[in-house]
Write a structure and sequence with these properties.
Largest sheet: 9 strands, mixed
Strand order of the largest sheet: 3-1-2-4-5-6-7-8-9
Shape: globular
Distance between the termini: 31 Å
Radius of gyration: 16 Å
Protein backbone atom coordinates (compact mmCIF):
# COMPACT_ATOMS: atom_id res chain seq x y z
CA UNK A 1 0.00 0.00 0.00
CA UNK A 2 1.29 3.46 -0.90
CA UNK A 3 2.57 5.62 1.93
CA UNK A 4 2.98 9.36 2.20
CA UNK A 5 5.51 11.40 4.15
CA UNK A 6 3.44 13.59 6.47
CA UNK A 7 4.96 16.30 8.63
CA UNK A 8 1.78 16.92 10.65
CA UNK A 9 -2.01 16.86 10.59
CA UNK A 10 -3.91 19.49 12.55
CA UNK A 11 -7.21 21.34 12.70
CA UNK A 12 -7.16 25.12 12.56
CA UNK A 13 -8.32 28.17 10.63
CA UNK A 14 -6.70 29.17 7.34
CA UNK A 15 -4.72 32.36 7.87
CA UNK A 16 -3.82 33.29 4.29
CA UNK A 17 -5.31 34.09 0.90
CA UNK A 18 -8.89 33.77 -0.30
CA UNK A 19 -9.82 31.14 2.29
CA UNK A 20 -8.55 33.17 5.27
CA UNK A 21 -10.79 32.64 8.28
CA UNK A 22 -12.17 29.30 7.05
CA UNK A 23 -11.61 26.20 9.22
CA UNK A 24 -9.60 23.39 7.65
CA UNK A 25 -7.96 20.14 8.57
CA UNK A 26 -4.39 20.68 7.39
CA UNK A 27 -2.36 17.80 6.01
CA UNK A 28 1.20 19.09 5.85
CA UNK A 29 3.40 16.88 3.71
CA UNK A 30 7.12 16.66 4.30
CA UNK A 31 9.71 17.25 1.64
CA UNK A 32 10.12 20.11 -0.78
CA UNK A 33 12.02 20.71 -3.99
CA UNK A 34 12.89 24.30 -2.94
CA UNK A 35 14.77 25.77 -0.01
CA UNK A 36 13.22 29.13 0.85
CA UNK A 37 15.05 30.98 3.61
CA UNK A 38 11.86 32.19 5.29
CA UNK A 39 10.01 28.84 5.21
CA UNK A 40 8.50 27.94 8.59
CA UNK A 41 8.14 24.18 7.96
CA UNK A 42 10.67 21.52 8.91
CA UNK A 43 10.42 19.56 5.67
CA UNK A 44 12.86 16.87 6.84
CA UNK A 45 10.67 15.64 9.71
CA UNK A 46 7.91 13.17 8.81
CA UNK A 47 5.81 10.12 9.61
CA UNK A 48 5.17 7.48 6.94
CA UNK A 49 1.38 7.16 6.66
CA UNK A 50 -0.95 5.30 4.32
CA UNK A 51 -3.99 7.00 2.85
CA UNK A 52 -6.37 5.23 5.28
CA UNK A 53 -4.14 6.28 8.21
CA UNK A 54 -4.31 9.90 7.03
CA UNK A 55 -8.09 9.65 6.66
CA UNK A 56 -8.39 8.21 10.17
CA UNK A 57 -6.47 11.18 11.60
CA UNK A 58 -8.46 13.73 9.56
CA UNK A 59 -11.99 12.35 10.02
CA UNK A 60 -12.58 12.98 13.76
CA UNK A 61 -12.57 16.76 13.29
CA UNK A 62 -15.91 18.54 12.94
CA UNK A 63 -14.92 19.84 9.50
CA UNK A 64 -15.09 18.65 5.92
CA UNK A 65 -12.55 21.11 4.54
CA UNK A 66 -9.08 19.70 3.94
CA UNK A 67 -5.98 21.61 2.86
CA UNK A 68 -2.96 19.77 1.52
CA UNK A 69 0.17 21.81 2.12
CA UNK A 70 3.81 21.26 2.84
CA UNK A 71 6.67 21.26 2.06
CA UNK A 72 5.49 20.68 -1.47
CA UNK A 73 2.26 18.66 -1.55
CA UNK A 74 2.26 18.23 -5.34
CA UNK A 75 5.20 15.85 -4.94
CA UNK A 76 2.90 13.38 -3.15
CA UNK A 77 -0.81 14.22 -3.52
CA UNK A 78 -2.63 11.87 -5.87
CA UNK A 79 -6.11 10.73 -6.85
CA UNK A 80 -5.91 7.76 -4.49
CA UNK A 81 -5.64 10.01 -1.46
CA UNK A 82 -8.31 12.42 -2.73
CA UNK A 83 -10.67 9.44 -3.22
CA UNK A 84 -10.69 8.98 0.56
CA UNK A 85 -12.49 12.32 1.03
CA UNK A 86 -15.63 12.20 -1.14
CA UNK A 87 -17.84 15.24 -0.71
CA UNK A 88 -15.15 17.18 1.14
CA UNK A 89 -13.95 20.64 0.10
CA UNK A 90 -10.38 19.89 -1.01
CA UNK A 91 -7.68 22.53 -1.37
CA UNK A 92 -3.96 22.62 -2.01
CA UNK A 93 -1.23 25.17 -1.53
CA UNK A 94 1.64 24.45 -3.91
CA UNK A 95 4.75 26.26 -5.07
CA UNK A 96 3.68 25.41 -8.62
CA UNK A 97 6.93 23.77 -9.71
CA UNK A 98 5.07 20.52 -10.37
CA UNK A 99 1.98 20.56 -12.61
CA UNK A 100 -0.93 19.03 -10.70
CA UNK A 101 -2.09 15.76 -12.24
CA UNK A 102 -5.23 15.86 -10.07
CA UNK A 103 -6.01 19.59 -10.52
CA UNK A 104 -9.52 18.91 -11.84
CA UNK A 105 -10.41 17.05 -8.64
CA UNK A 106 -9.55 19.91 -6.28
CA UNK A 107 -11.99 22.62 -5.23
CA UNK A 108 -9.33 25.30 -4.58
CA UNK A 109 -5.79 25.62 -5.89
CA UNK A 110 -3.40 28.13 -4.39
CA UNK A 111 -0.17 28.53 -6.32
CA UNK A 112 2.52 30.33 -4.36
CA UNK A 113 5.45 30.48 -6.80
CA UNK A 114 8.89 31.36 -5.52
CA UNK A 115 10.28 32.21 -8.98
CA UNK A 116 8.65 33.22 -12.31
CA UNK A 117 9.32 29.81 -13.90
CA UNK A 118 6.58 27.81 -12.20
CA UNK A 119 4.63 25.10 -14.08
CA UNK A 120 1.11 25.12 -12.55
CA UNK A 121 -0.22 28.13 -14.50
CA UNK A 122 -3.87 27.93 -13.49
CA UNK A 123 -5.68 27.88 -10.19
CA UNK A 124 -8.07 29.65 -7.88
CA UNK A 125 -5.45 32.08 -6.63
CA UNK A 126 -1.83 33.03 -7.00
CA UNK A 127 -0.15 34.14 -3.78
CA UNK A 128 3.34 35.55 -4.08
CA UNK A 129 5.51 36.15 -1.04
CA UNK A 130 6.70 39.68 -1.75
CA UNK A 131 10.32 40.51 -1.04
CA UNK A 132 10.53 43.48 -3.42
CA UNK A 133 11.13 41.33 -6.53
CA UNK A 134 10.08 42.37 -10.05
CA UNK A 135 6.65 40.82 -10.58
CA UNK A 136 6.38 41.64 -14.29
CA UNK A 137 7.97 38.27 -15.16
CA UNK A 138 5.25 36.30 -13.34
CA UNK A 139 2.43 35.01 -15.58
CA UNK A 140 -0.66 35.48 -13.41
CA UNK A 141 -3.34 35.30 -16.11
CA UNK A 142 -4.70 31.87 -15.18
CA UNK A 143 -5.79 32.82 -11.67
CA UNK A 144 -9.04 34.29 -10.38
CA UNK A 145 -7.45 36.00 -7.38
CA UNK A 146 -4.04 37.62 -7.07
CA UNK A 147 -2.48 38.08 -3.63
CA UNK A 148 0.79 39.53 -2.41
CA UNK A 149 1.96 38.42 0.99
CA UNK A 150 4.71 40.17 2.91
CA UNK A 151 7.48 38.24 4.61
CA UNK A 152 6.23 38.25 8.21
CA UNK A 153 7.83 41.10 10.13
CA UNK A 154 9.95 42.28 7.18
CA UNK A 155 8.25 43.56 4.02
CA UNK A 156 4.81 44.75 5.13
CA UNK A 157 5.29 48.40 4.11
CA UNK A 158 6.90 47.57 0.76
CA UNK A 159 4.04 45.16 0.01
CA UNK A 160 1.41 47.78 0.85
CA UNK A 161 3.16 50.38 -1.31
CA UNK A 162 3.32 47.95 -4.26
CA UNK A 163 -0.37 47.08 -3.97
CA UNK A 164 -1.34 50.76 -3.89
CA UNK A 165 0.51 51.22 -7.19
CA UNK A 166 -0.78 47.94 -8.68
CA UNK A 167 -4.43 47.55 -7.58
CA UNK A 168 -4.91 44.23 -9.39
CA UNK A 169 -3.18 42.71 -6.35
CA UNK A 170 -4.76 42.13 -2.95
CA UNK A 171 -3.05 41.86 0.40
CA UNK A 172 -2.71 38.52 2.14
CA UNK A 173 -1.18 38.46 5.61
CA UNK A 174 -0.43 35.46 7.75
CA UNK A 175 -3.28 36.00 10.20
CA UNK A 176 -2.36 32.87 12.13
CA UNK A 177 0.99 34.44 13.02
CA UNK A 178 -0.53 37.75 14.10
CA UNK A 179 -3.22 35.97 16.13
CA UNK A 180 -0.76 33.32 17.40
CA UNK A 181 -2.92 30.37 16.42
CA UNK A 182 -1.74 27.02 15.12
Amino acid sequence: MKSYRVNEIFYSVQGEGGNAGRPFVFVRFSGCNLRCGWCDTDTSSFMEMTGPEIAARVSPHNCENILFTGGEPALQLDAGLLDLFPGWYTAIETNGTVALACAGRLDWITVSPKTPDFRQRTGSEIKIVYEGQDLSAYDCGGFGHKFLQPVFGCTEQATLAYIKEHPQWRLSVQLHKYLKIN
